[in-house]
Records
---
Amino acid sequence: MTEIQIAPSLLAADKMQLGALVSDLEDHIDVLHIDVMDGHFVPNISFGPSVVECLRPLTQKPIDVHLMVERPELWVTAYRDAGADWISVHVEATYHLERTLAVIRESGARAGVALNPGTGPEGLEFVLKNGDFVLVMTVNPGFGGQSFIEASYRKIAAIRAYLDVHELTDVEVQVDGGVGPSTAAGCAEAGASILVAGSAITGAADPAAAASNLREAATAGSTD
Ligand code: DX5
Ligand code: ZN
């Protein structure tokens, strides 16, 4: 059975309580997802490297930094130095994806390629020797609390098949946007193994319980 990893996004959290939230989630999650937005690539601004640095000592879990910024290659070192273990960049935001992934890998972090809803996997086979996961955006990036784009189930399955056909079976599929108890099983069934959830976990009244519920819902859809 595919191991499901639960990755809460801090975007939906009460920012005054981030430290307490991270401690509360520690035993219920696999990865901590931090959304970085620059006000250019996406119409919102969020967390800088100093936030990652503050949270780093509070968790043993990998910190997954999702860079929704233009020219993400300029920020790899700053976020890695702050404590990021995984770093993903958008294919739409960097001119030289292969080089950017290599820089992330050379820094010692796991490297992810993020795809907006309208972007397909074409070309990824040529660069993913330096990649660990593909982040399939299941909403348009920039904000939490949006509805899951239904066509994403087909897209997740297509990306999983593409990776397998190109002998990239170790590259994982991460999904992000509108993931909750009602969409998690479908995502897992389609081939996603890392589930990012903001409102469904960090926006819930009991985030730790919500994380566990999401894992149960996803595991029901997980195959092989
Ligand atoms: C959106 C971010 C997501 C966001 C998801 O641009 O990349 O990580 O926090 O939030 P929900 O789960 O509320 O859609
Ligand atoms: Zn994200």
Note: The chain has one domain: 5-222.
---
Amino acid sequence: RLLLGFLRPLGSRFPWAAGLALGVWGGTGPVGKAFPIAHTHVSPPAKFTCPKRSTHMAIQRTFSIIKPDATKRNLTGAINAKFEAAGLRIVAQKRIHLTKAQAGVFYEVHKERPFYDELCEFMASEPIVVQVLEGEDAIAKNSEVMGATNPAEADEGTIRKEFALSIGENSVHGSDAPETAAVEIAYFFAGLELVG
Ligand code: CMP
């Protein structure tokens, strides 16, 4: 009784503390009998909760193209071996032959660049492989494995250093941000074609 007299005013000021007491003393104990809601969970205020910090990086999807210069030289397998060795999983893939107009829509962001026409012509010159890569931090990882756009500036061991012929014929394309990845994936794949 003395204990309950002490707890009741406390409970009205600090409902979370009452909840805690009910959790500890509830059920068959004296508090449980006095408060029939003994099994109701009352969360403490946010400032008393431990922040849950994720120790994992986000799983992302990114869009990837194996370009005409690479498909022509039979390098699809060698290039994908590098993506897979880096922990990227191919969750969608198809071999297609773009028209120049379709390539133009895909690279519309470069429309004003002097190399736009040459780029579209090149992308429509031979079949390409379009694919979706999935993994931890996939956008950054894909960029790292591809290497710099210009093979002359690419690091040793990267796809472009090893296989690219020039800045134009640079073997692979990869999305540069989550927003562009979403748009680029949707240009080539329906949702049901992505199998993780
Ligand atoms: P990609 O990552 O597919 O994005 C745009 C492409 O434009 C790029 O790779 C290159 O292939 C191409 N590109 C960029 N700069 C040049 C350039 N100076 N001359 C020709 N092509 C270029």
Note: The beta strands are 59-66, 89-96, 128-136, 172-174.
---
Amino acid sequence: MDAKEKLRRYLEQRRELGETELALDGLTVDDALRILGANAGAQSARPPAATAPKQGAPMPRATETAGAPDIADWRDALRQAGASPDTMAAKKPSVVEPRATAREAAASPAASSKPAPPAPQAPTETIEISDIPAGLSVGTAAGELFGGEMGTLRTLEEIAAHVASCTRCPLYSTATNPVPGEGSATADFMCVGEAPGATEDETGRPFVGAAGQLLTKILAAIELRREDVYIVNVLKHRPPGNRNPRPEEVQACSPYLIRQIELIRPKVILALGTFAAQTLLETKLSIGKLRNQIHRYYGVPLIVTYHPAALLRNPSWKRPAWEDVKLARRILDNSSPTSAGA
Ligand code: URA
């Protein structure tokens, strides 16, 4: 495939995901000039960094992503993408903390093992949480019982046992293990992904493959330990070959997720990727349209961000994803005084 074709597919993929702006941060100058037909005089034979999968083909999950960058540190990964946590606020007039918190300090280069250049003293434009637009709202007030088919299941263990013998859709017959979810039953912060991949299927644990390792680092960057949050997927069994979940599978499986949210009653939900966001918010809107808003799921604030597997494929999304997770953390901090502990 020539470079022009690669660029076309890449742009189409981004448009499908609702992106309207493009930062060509994955291309070298020579690459871009070559694609445009100019004589780049390139010494480098490097292809464009981001190439889209074949059109119409399912997106590989991170567990199957060949050549995924070896991200040793979330902050390093952000810097590689041209967006360090400390300088982000200066680059984008988005969610900016009014003052440095212990969490921000921890996410700053000073807390990293590698020395980093000092953050530029740029003017900051503070956007309060109250200025972030309200998004979609599913259900009514917090505290309302969601009801639903799984309303008789009283604990997360009961849900897990039910999932283990579930035959509501055919996925149980091809999966190795059910992946009901894991974490603290009293978590204030809940992450919702799409479906188990190969590593999750082997282990019965959510987000333990390459995307999961990135998620763990993202959580650490906002001072949350995996064991203190609840991590779950829309689907509890792996779709064969990591194909996209089918609507009937989502419909069959989502009562478990709804009951998990109802039992945990988190203070914030972070929806990772299109399927989680669209399922919970009962919408077909793209990620691009759902980000930067505070949605409500039965009163619980819900933030939408890119799936970690998508971040592995498209490092340029790490910057906006960092904004999303910072916003989620701020909402957590601003919830009740008892809730914000990491
Ligand atoms: N992707 C998901 O959506 N969930 C997992 O558990 C792993 C990868």
Note: The CA atoms of residues 131 and 318 lie 23 Å apart.
---
Amino acid sequence: MSITEPTGQIPDTDGTARQWWRQAAVYQIYPRSFADANKDGIGDFVGVLSRVDYLASLNVDAVWFSPFYPSALADGGYDVDDYRDVDPSIGTLADFEAVIAALHGRGIKVIIDIVPNHSSNRHAWFREALASPAGSPARDRYLFRDGKGPGGELPPNDWQAMFGGSAWTRIAEPDGTPGQWYFHMFAPQQPDWNWDNPEVREDFLATLRFWGDRGVDGFRVDVASGLAKDMSEPYPEWERVMHGPMSFLESAEVTFDPGRHPLFDRDELDEIYAGWRQVFNTYDPPLFAVAEAWVTPDRQARYASTDGLGQSFNFDLLSAGWDIGDFRTVIQRNLEFAEANDTTSTWVFSNHDVIRHATRYSQSSGYRPMFDRMTRPDDAAAARGLARARAATLLALALPGSAYLYQGEELGLPEVFDIPADRAQDPSAVIENGVIVAGRDGCRVPLPWTASGEFFGFSDGGAHLPQPKWYGAFSVEAESDDPNSTLTLYREALRLRRKFHTSEHLEWLDLGNNVLAFTRPNGWISVTNFGATPAQLPVGTVVVRTDGRHDRAPLAPDSTAWLVRG
Ligand code: NOJ
């Protein structure tokens, strides 16, 4: 990577090589659950190294690593003790550098999670803040406030944390007396940074450079819409604050002017990310970032702009049920947004925060991924869920833009239910009758590599979340040579996608009421049957289909086929 003079915008390019991320298939690795080489039950970088051939066999363009930084795991590693190191259970910086080199050697880019909204309460600067007096420069790096009530014994306001309970925690002052309160949008172990503080800003720029200099190609920005806050009094009531910016499929009542919500999506973020862009542009090709920002499409442009991060997640397909109308609206709207803003869209069905889509699609279409609970579906519903998941993924892989894939979805892996309560890790886990009934542990269970063995090839020593008995049927070993497996489908679709994905153009085809079809340049056609009866295929040669057939027979319900014409 060479260094160029900083400029304020993504440099004008002919696209492909320098803006590789525009059409990339990105595979998300949750490091603790991918592959464990040192037998401690926790995935590590040496484990990743041993699976580089596998990653290459998937035909993905990039790998995104969820946090691997030193952490007490109050929130799966999103509580970062040190932004410029690797947790010893995952490896060393040298191991990570070896992973980057190995992936780059196979033509795979590397994206890492950066967590700028909050640190952990073990971060050196938070510990310094606790040891320093109220009003000190060390306290100013975080959001400390005096409490209400005669002795300051009440939190500064009624705001709630995302994982429940007050968003404020009271500290003991250095002399041991009850003292100030600090703000945390998530767990109490995740104090929010004060982004008005210049030292905080500078320190994150140093972190970006640290990883850029080690060869990472980009960042996934956690809670990207949360950094700038208005913590001035009078505080609005939580009732009002919680009606914040949402996905456009939610009819949220927005009670603040755009850009003026006290906690999310504030206009001041533009300036922060413009500073990041300056750093990104000192690399060649420029680094890029994708924002995790749950905001309406009109506001997404700010994160995805060419003088900001570059790209923003749209979680609209992830939030949509199996409904042709919703799919078409979401796709059309996001493609229009991307074109208008000189970025590309991102298509996501699964990640480490939601119930796996093979299981989600077993539910009726009204199911809301981030809000509703579900239980393990019966076999018929599970089969329907998997069929729809395969169809949805194949459809999305044919769309212009990037596809973000979460480890295990290439195996059609279902969500794991009924994890014993004493194994719970997720701060948002809901426990009833001794088992986890909601939360994010069920999509974070270590991957099955082999059909048998105590830990299904994930490890020879343990699995930090228990793997169910049925796991082997979804293993890499079981699926590798099966022509109809989900793994074979992903490999083949991703291989073809690379070949066909030459432009960002899409045209809808009208093939009847329950069929969503479109054509791309080079005569590439995608057809999805949302109906209850088989659908005729248009003219063309079938190259891949999700319903187990390989011919031109009518397409089964809940299936997608790709064809080429000409
Ligand atoms: C979003 C991450 O994806 C999630 O896992 C985490 O709990 C929160 N941000 C807080 O960092």
Note: The domain at 124-183 is CATH 3.90.400.10 (Oligo-1,6-glucosidase; domain 2).
